Queue: 2 jobs
Job 1
Amino acid sequence: MKITVLLSAGRHPVSARPCPPAVELQALRLASGLAADITGLHAGPSADGVADALGHGLSTLNLLTIKGDSDPLVSLAATLKATTPDLILAGRQAQGGEDSGLLPYALARELGLPILADVVRIDAGGEGLLAVEQVLPRGARRRVVLRLPALLTVHPAAPAPLPFTFAAARRGKITQLQGVDSQPPSAAPEERPYRKRPKLIAKSAAGASAADRLKAATEAAAGGGRLLVNPAPAEAAREIITHLREIGVLRR
Amino acid sequence: MTDTTLSLALVLYALAGFAGVAAFRRARAWRAGQPARVDWVAGLRALPRRYLVDVHHVVGRDPFTARMHALTAGGLLAGSLLVLLSPLPGLGGSRLFWGVVALLFAAMLAGGAMVRRRRVPVTPPRLSRGRFAFLPLLLIGYAAGALLVALDGASGGWLWPLGWLGLWLAAAAGLGLVNQIERGPMRHVVAGALHLAAHPRPGRFEGRRETALAPLDLDAPRLGTETPADFAWNRLLGFDACIQCGRCEVACPAFAAGQPLNPKKLIQDLVATLEPGGSNAAYAGSPYPHARPVAGRGGPDQPIIGREAMIHPDTLWSCTTCRACVEECPMMIEHVDAIVSLRRHQTLELGAVPEKAAPALAELRYADDAQGRPLAARTDFAAGTPLPLIAARGEAEILLWLGEGAYDMRHGRSLRALLKLLHLAKVDVAVLGPEERDCGDLARRLGDEATFQRLARENVATLARYRFARILTADPHALHVLRNEYPAFGGHYEVVHHTAFLDELVAAGRLAPGALALAGVTYHDPCYLGRYNGEVDAPRRLLDRLGLDRVEMARHGRRSMCCGGGGGAPLSDVEGETRIPDLRMEQAKATGAGIVAVACPQCTAMLEGVTGDRPEVRDIAELVLMAVEAAPARPTRQPEPVA
Ligand code: SF4
Ligand code: SF4
């Protein structure tokens, strides 16, 4: 199985020094359980910080050099179209500053691949198939069987990264390739007037005891709603609309 | 010369020849190791002194053993040497000469009896059985036999039937002893003597503090020690010198806590790997407590660590690097060097670090603090106390190195006490603040030499920008690293521990503590201050100046027991039966003291973590502050000389 792991130029949240984002190293760990030969792919001006992934189980890093403000999507898509890996792994969100977490989706659209988010476990599932465990909110997990090729993003709840190995990082190969310079991803951000968002925490009656208020607050946080297993689409839609009305998101 | 004495001399020549062959064959095992620079001339010249002074300083802590060894070894070597010289004209014919020889072998016989006596009625657990149980019989046989022959010589041949009997006895037992050179207890004679001459840390014998780890060449093709052949040859020689006396085993805190480490067995496992197809089956001493299963096989070119090899990783990571084993070892073996070298390979080449150590090392790599805390938050503990940054002034008389303990709420209390005292004594002090990175102690002991070296270089570069007379620190780990390990990276500083510094201030009359009326206090020596740096007097002197009723634990000073906090052991967290700090606290409690005085953030944290009814834990700085605040007014005292 040919696996490519997308690596971003992250920064340490406290020291701001270049540092690979933990969730991408976790993706590397998941990948190293599936295949021995994993390629890392990064589009950016340099390999600062990114190269340390070579100490966490990555054997080769392909660096697509582009200008600092270019949109990496163009270069990544071009390379991935050419190399056609069976599996592309990415972290759920990069950690370099203004990272939106949208790149994996944009890339999947560009490549015409299915994307599955927030994966914590991957097993080979027979010829051309993968058995994947996906994180849902509030601790729920879902098992999914998926046909390759596909793009998966990894969730921070996946197993911890393999420990850094200085000697492996020293041995690792970095291949420099010319990327495609392009326009910065988006121009000026769109501005809109402020609108107060509806509170999702249920209110308990004023003057209720602290325990009641706590109960109300935590119950709302715990979802409240109803769990429907395999509902009919129409029924599900009705249920959602009712819920949104209840919490005041839909007015009519 | 009588027939029997002449025959004994001939037998001894033969035995000496065999011994030489056996030693030579064993020497081939050491040659598997890496080359090492050894000053043979100086080493051999210093050998008698190293043996008679340094070794016997260690052996002499147990007077029975010291006498036992002096009699046995002295009698054996001197007696046999004289017999070898006896064919010289004028010697062997003298009855007086044989009288002297008889006396020497009588001494050896007494020594041999003492060797046996140690195992009666039962062999204590620290001593090995197997070949070692056989040794006293061989010693007694050889001594008794040679004694009979010498008596025959001294009597001028009158006792010839006894003489012949003795000759056979001496020859048989002597062969047994020679046989124990290649594999057995007698190996320590040959390897031990050579090890003393070719010791990898010769400075130990010249009164220097040789406790700094040697820097690793990070460009070497293979990092750290994977196989025995990766050790320097004189390290292999050192392992071979082990006489399995078990002193290290008794001193080891991890062993006492039931963790799978026994330094004696560790050394024996390394010895077992020196031969191709080596196995740990012949070892007959105490095992690793709760030993994890391993294959127990090895060879000069096979990996040492691993479930399929000789030593389980849990054994390696149990060590607190407290150096108690090194301090106790009469053969001057350097266990900690070996352990760290093996750890370096695990960490740097295999990335096989304990689970909780990996995130700490990652934070050190990217944020210069083991928990990824902002460096600027290091001074938060001071909370209002003025704490000048050296960057604002460029110089200060005293640079205060805060260490990672400063982030800890409990140790912050000790540091605030220290700051207040410095303020009262009007010391010109400043801190690096956000420029202070972790000193690298944790990374280094966990085998991450790359991170340590980076931190060391960056700290040295920072310190080079400022002018200060001395570095003051309340953290013995930082003290050790800054004082002893940074010189290899170009940083030479005068580093003083806060206990020594406060002692100076009180002696100079700059602080005037009143007498403290507290329940008795016992002082727990931090390993990195006492054993690593030999500073055991200043803290005690200081406590005495406070008028405290000081009692000692059985293990104190350089022979103190570790709190369990060093060497990254709290991160490795290898499971045992009890916790090391619980054991140490028991010892403190046994003195009846109401307070355990500490002088290290790790010790504070470990001992404060002990639950139940126990003495209180106080940093010495806190006690001094209490005493200063208890003093009625501030009388002006005459300065007295610093001791
Ligand atoms: S290593 Fe040293 S202290 Fe330990 S058993 Fe061997 S000789 Fe004795
Ligand atoms: S350094 Fe301390 S913990 Fe490590 S083996 Fe020696 S005595 Fe045991």
Note: The two ends of chain A are 51 Å apart (CA to CA).
Job 2
Amino acid sequence: MSGILVLCDHAGGAFKPTANELLTLAGTLGGPVFAAVLGDAPAATLGGLGASKVFQAAGSFGDYAGAATVDALEAILAASGASVLLAPGTYVAHDALPRLAARLGAGMATDCSSVAMVDGKLVGTRDWFAGRAQGQVTVNTTPAIASVAPNSGPKSESTGAEAEVVSVSWEAKTPGLEVLETLAPSTDGVDLNTADVVIAGGRSLKSKENFDGVIRGLASTLRAGVGASRAATDAGIADHSEQVGQTGVTVAPSLYIAAGISGAIQHLAGMRTSKVIVAINTDSGAPIFEHATYGIVGDLFEVCPAIAEAVQALD
Amino acid sequence: MNIGVCVKIAPDTNARVKIAGDGSGFDMADQVHGIPDYDEYAVEEAMKTKGAHKGSVTVFTVTTQKADKYIRKGVLALDGDKAVVIGEDASDTLDVARLLAAAIQKEGCEVVFTGKVSTDGGSHQLSPMLAEVLGWTLVSKVVELSIDGDTFTATRAMDAGIKQVVKGKLPAVITCEDGLNKVRLPNMRGIMKAKRKPMEMVSAADLGVSIDGGRTAEGSFAPPPKRPAGRIIEGEAADAARELVRLLRDEAKVL
Ligand SMILES: Cc1cc2nc3c(=O)[nH]c(=O)nc-3n(C[C@H](O)[C@H](O)[C@H](O)COP(=O)(O)OP(=O)(O)OC[C@H]3O[C@@H](n4cnc5c(N)ncnc54)[C@H](O)[C@@H]3O)c2cc1C
């Protein structure tokens, strides 16, 4: 067995950025690169990103179908003969992938920030304790499975080459779920997940009116995505889909502004890898300042509008 | 209903992380080891399910630590009925899943609740592996649940704030996400009653499971890369804001 198989996620036929990132990464690991595609998508185009062969499973995978993903990936892995399976570090890595690992008796490294082949073994670097430590996982089995966190590596330009597409048949054997409804967050404005600038507010905003005025106000000036602490979403000041942290969204924008957020460990887990962090807090001892690139000790109700004014003065 | 809940005895999300000198492991023996955050949601959901459907709750854990006080106070005192402590030092997640699955099968559970992720390793692997070994339905990161006979409807929290309402059949492994319920503290009466509840100690051999391990090896632990020291911008709000915006544009080049 040899070769690296990449699970290339797509939404309704359009490949997600993780497909490009993972194929690019796989190309640096040595050996042939194969792509796995579940459902209907322009599979051959992955040749332009380095896949020498694409294994495609027909069937209805909807937005996500965990049980079908396990069964189809098992068949694709066998058909490809790959010794390594790479997948995006998204919901699939916390649901279908470990189930497949158990079926195959394979070791898995979850949500790595980087992976390498060392002496023929897959080694992943990943977080422990929600980012308060890092370490390495060496996978001793064949196949070896790893998920890689989105945005962890570079993307490539397509060469325009087309790959051979092999259609793989598979058998449903895992007990599945019927999806009754998909509830997408209301994303008026900039999408928090992919925003280049994020402004987030905490409990200290006290009311929805204040949050809308101060945080959303500054967000529209900065063309930023809006985030919130759990204390803010729990209080109903901000929407649950806007929660940043261990139980919410993980973001890594160029600029993250935390206004009236104390910097609890669980909040930091969702934004600590932002390039520049700005903290605005009345308490100079707030833990958020230990992680901030720039800090202003002050009242957010004064500082945020002043930032909006200063930005407008630039234009 | 015969309800199971799996918990890990581990430091919670607020623990201070200390890495052993040579980076081969963590030195956290002096940290509070209890039932970590997400597992508490699993415990509460098990109790809510018992409240709604009658039956009993059995708690399962794999540990070589003294689990007694955590299990009694954290589960049995909240109306849990029985504990099964599997006293094995299993570091391979698939081994842990096999041990739990064997114990769960022996008890005849119809539904098992787990926390969505552990607060230490955080690999998200145990629950899907457990579902596979049992051959059961899996629902991950559940924020809303209702069970009706042998079917259930669950809302699961997926990526990017997307949620899905799904329907499936028991038996199932259900992993619990923040928001599913509000955890409670035990009362005095519960704590007293818990002292007399059965706690069974079992080994891998009792369960007929052989631990083979070694599928992965972990090490080279280190603190996360340090961020460069930050800077506090002094001055009145208006002046500080202007200086911040200047720095963001000219120094950090992010505006
Ligand atoms: C299992 C678990 C999971 C969790 N997951 C998450 C998660 O995903 N995301 C998350 O955010 N939290 C999460 N939490 C909660 C987390 O521990 C904190 O409670 C939460 O982040 C605190 O939110 P906050 O900073 O808004 O509130 P607080 O901690 O109350 O902080 C408010 C801050 O505002 C400052 N302040 C007050 N007034 C002003 C003012 N006028 N101007 C400027 N500053 C002001 C205060 O000095 C203080 O620092 C989780 C907790 C647990 C146990």
Note: The CA atoms of residues 98 and 108 of chain A lie 7 Å apart.
